Amino acid sequence: xxxxxxxxxxxxxxxxxxxxxxxxxxxxxxxxxxxxxxxxxxxxxxxxxxxxxxxxxxxxxxxxxxxxxxxxxxxxxxxxxxxxxxxxxxxxxxxxxxxxxxxxxxxxxxxxxxxxxxxxxxxxxxxxxxxxxxxxxxxxxxxxxxxxxxxxxxxxxxxxxxxxxxxxxxxxxxxxxxxxxxxxxxxxxxxxxxxxxxxxxxxxxxxxxxxxxxxxxxxxxxxxxxxxxxxxxxxxxxxxxxxxxxxxxxxxxxxxxxxxxxxxxxxxxxxxxxxxxxxxxxxxxxxxxxxxxxxxxxxxxxxxxxxx
Length: 308
Ligand SMILES: NC(=O)c1ccc[n+]([C@@H]2O[C@H](COP(=O)([O-])OP(=O)(O)OC[C@H]3O[C@@H](n4cnc5c(N)ncnc54)[C@H](O)[C@@H]3O)[C@@H](O)[C@H]2O)c1
Known about the structure:
The protein has 308 residues and is an alpha/beta fold.
């Protein structure tokens, strides 16, 4: 039987995620949104591209959740995005209400699914979904690190004029100004970037990565990034559906790992058919550890505001 992925929120990130999933023939897709007609129209339009793309994938759109039953994975992108001048944290109250509504409905129809949370502020929304769904932590995972690392890798590849395929890089911590790019674990064809660039260049790239979301918001003015974010969520979907045991930076609920307990924060995770199968603990320098703890503190503050 074909796998089924439901995407809640048929906006920029959600509809583009549906596009990537269909184009890669990963699963049938159900697109759900509160806006009447939008998920139906986008789903039908995407379905009609399948003969051209030669992909046997079924795509449907709906306003209610009945079609989401038996989903293997549910990607939640419902919520408002930021506008210029806004931080991700400014979205907290509005998106918390939306997240609660969505999680209530989705857990009723797809109690065995794995949830991938995308809505911002990411770590607090993942925590809200985890608490409300009462799923175990293996089945509630947040997307941020794959995107932040992809931005970091893009800038390294552009700077050195090398293939993006040669660049591996890791960004840990919360999805916000306190994210922790790790130059020490970033390499090009196995060569540490510190051998290829001076410290000032690395610092500039790290700062551009931190500001990567805001840079796009500034250009778009009416919304935020969606091609790379949706591709990042779909890399997680693919790792789980294909049981790839792929190590990706994801927001996971920590239970003592990295000295943090009871919060979502970005760490290296192994993704496979059970969802989050392992958290990989790497040794951090005192400065990196301090930056990760600082990042966790800002997640903690947001969670306290919404009481999750
Ligand atoms: N984690 C990340 O790295 C990352 C990256 C990009 C965007 N985001 C976040 O993802 C979210 C979506 O961004 P977007 O650009 O797609 O926004 P968008 O406005 O294009 O789409 C959001 C959709 O959610 C729908 N929606 C609102 N309330 C709903 C509800 N109760 N039930 C179902 N659907 C509902 C809206 O109708 C809209 O179609 C934002 O919160 C944004 O900040 C996160």
